[in-house]
Amino acid sequence: MKPLLRLACLAALLPGPALAAGQTTVDVYRELIRYRAATVGAEKAFGYDTHAYVSKFLDNPDSLYSDLRIDPPITNEIWWYDFVDSLPIDATEKSDAALDMLQWQGGFTKARIGIDVVVDKASVRAYRGEYAAASAIKAGVDADIFLKAWDMNGRMTTIGAGHAVALQLLRHQVRSNAPETYDALGIKPGVLSRYLQQNNPEKIDAFDQAYLADLLRYALSRQDFTIDTDGHRQLPAAYRVARVAAAFADAGGYLNPHGYCRGNDPHPDEPTRADAIDDNRPLCFVAATDRAVQSWFRRQMRHEASLIRKAHENRDETATRLMAWFSGALLLIDLAGFVEMGEAGLLGEMSAEGAIPEEEAAYAEERANQLTCRLRS
Fold it and tell me: What is the pTM of this model?
């Protein structure tokens, strides 16, 4: 019961909307699902799978490094401009702003230095390299949190990345709320300060571990973007965690003498198709889409889990603690890239509100269930 109560309290902990210059804060993907479900029905509107949806935005959906489509077909749909006109977007070019947000939310953008992300000399020093800095900055994680989470988790970089994003979410709340409201909102600044001051991962107590896991799990389950205290939009949590893990990989260096990048592009000797991640090889992360980095993360997460599974079976306390993160919060990242899962959640909300018939939500839920079964088999 306690985990459920914690999750309910943490609903107030995520960043609220704020206006970022040149960017809309409207959750365009959520509004798209609602609009299409209400106008033509779920089965007609969402008769596609994840690959087909990705194809609407990327030149080559089978490439880890695909560019965005210059003229995405979704903007040529008859209904597109009626949909855009319905959005509360304050921009001269509402269609461009809506498309930009869909590209951002969908994980179709990159972390190219000087193009997608500004990386200065101070950041290069702080994050242990320009490539690491690019991914960490895009993930919206401060350097002190980045380095501490890395130090506290060693080879378990996927868990370290989860810690980093959870700690950053907590820092946002500490900074954006008055101290006298902390208790009512369930904000625990001590969890952040204790973690940053700790040098022994074994001494992070069970309460702090559970609090961070709940905070991250709630952020992952929302599957939407957030706005930080500086007015900068942040990626959906699953892509943030994956980007941090990528930054850890870049900061740690590689045995590969030529690296994986040449400037902002993948090294010409490196494969570019999606199956390149099958052997857990690193990517040229700055050139890869957020979606591709998330796919790499899923493989890396399974690889790291296999390293500690035997110790867990032998009742090793450290392994047990790590496995709790794999089976809890991080498990949600496994499904975050599939549009079937997001649609099922949103249409379920609409059904609960009475906005669409129950059978519409049931259709989406069935698609998600079939996907989950395929992934487990």
Answer: 0.88
